[in-house]
Amino acid sequence: MHDESSPTPAADARHSASAPVLVAIVDDHESVRLGIRAACLDAGYEVVAASASVSELWVALAGRPCDVVVLDLSLGDGFTVTENVQHARSMGAAVLVHSIADRVALVREALAAGAAGVIPKSAATSTVMAAIAAVARGDVLNNLEWASAIDADREFGKAQLAQRERDVLHLYASGLPLSQVALKLNIKVSTAKEYLDRIRAKYVEVGRPARSKVELLRRAVEDGILALDEHGHVE
User: Fold this and answer.
1) What Å distances lie between residue 138 and 53, 67, 167, CA to CA?
2) CB 57 within 8 A of CB 49
3) 131 with 119: CB under 8 angstroms?
4) How far apart are CA 124 and CA 105, in angstroms?
5) Cα separations (Å) of 221 from 77, 142, 213, 229, 234?
6) Beta carbons within 8 Å of 198's beta carbon, 6+ residues apart
7) Which end of the chain has less neighbouring CB within 10 Å, N or C?
8) Closest alpha carbon to 19 in 58, 80, 55, 65
9) What is the pLDDT of residue 203?
10) Distance of alpha carbon 29 from alpha carbon 158, whole angstroms
11) What is the largest CA-CA distance in the chain?
12) pLDDT interval class at 162 (50, 70, 90)
């Protein structure tokens, strides 16, 4: 399986407001795939692929763009949740976890791997469609499943950074100037600065100020956003 997990462009930077949201569905139950596909079509979204595994999705997409991957956590495909989320993100898509609500450990792993949000399979179809639209815009879902996963692992929830904020922090703290961060994420420099200001504000709120770039690097390492080698260099 391809395991690239570098930051990916936001869906809202790829298509205009008038273009349909491009959705892919990964679930090993055909009835679920068909149900989500029908709901997406009713909502005006375009379903670009539907498969029983992330590996199959990679083949089905064949490099075509995708904004959101609706991903089940328990696929039984031999890969971990982390591997599946990172593989889906490497296709340039935001990942919306669609699973049963009592699998907090798996939800926490998915969020740590970069999933943009969680929606339970018990949710109304309209709620699922709204969640797809939200993560396609780059928003983070603040729902009960997300809160439960964070509560289950306080180390992960300390700063409560959104995925795009984590992407900006990862690149900036690794040494890139803000202009290069913006270029890599396909956003304006002013937008990158806004994300950086938000990141700093969130760290202040939890009593972990990060005023300088060195302090931001320290916070990124503490929260697992960046890793250092034995010599203290960014890996």
Assistant:
1) 24, 10, 12
2) yes
3) yes
4) 23
5) 31, 24, 12, 11, 9
6) 165
7) C
8) 65
9) 81
10) 35
11) 54
12) confident
Counting Cβ atoms within 10 Å, is residue 113 exposed (0-12), middle (13-18) or buried (19+)? Answer: buried
142 secondary structure, DSSP code: -
Residue with tokens 């939890």: 206
Burial letters 71-85, b for 16+ CB under 10 A, else e? bbbebebebebbbbb
Q: What is the DSSP string of 46-113?
A: EEEEEESSHHHHHHHHTT---SEEEE-S---SS--HHHHHHHHHTTT-EEEEEE-TT-HHHHHHHHHT
The 10 Å Cβ neighbour count of residue 168 is 29
Q: How many CB atoms lie within 10 A of CB 16?
A: 6
3-7, 162-166, 177-181: range with lowest mean pLDDT? 3-7
Ramachandran angles phi, psi of 77, nearest 5°: -100, 5
Map out the domains of the chain with their CATH numbers: 11-156 (3.40.50.2300), 159-222 (1.10.10.10)
Name the phi and psi angles at 71, rounded to 5.
-120, 125
pLDDT tens, residue by residue, 82-139? 899 999 998 989 999 988 755 666 777 787 778 888 888 888 899 999 999 988 988 7
Residue that is written with structure tokens 């798996």 in the block: 106
Report the distance separating Cα 162 and Cα 138, nearest Å: 9
Residue whose tokens read 């396609």: 136
Helix axes 189-205, 178-185, angle to 10 degrees: 110
Give the integer Cα–Cα distance in Å for 25 and 48. Answer: 9
- The pTM for the full model equals 0.59
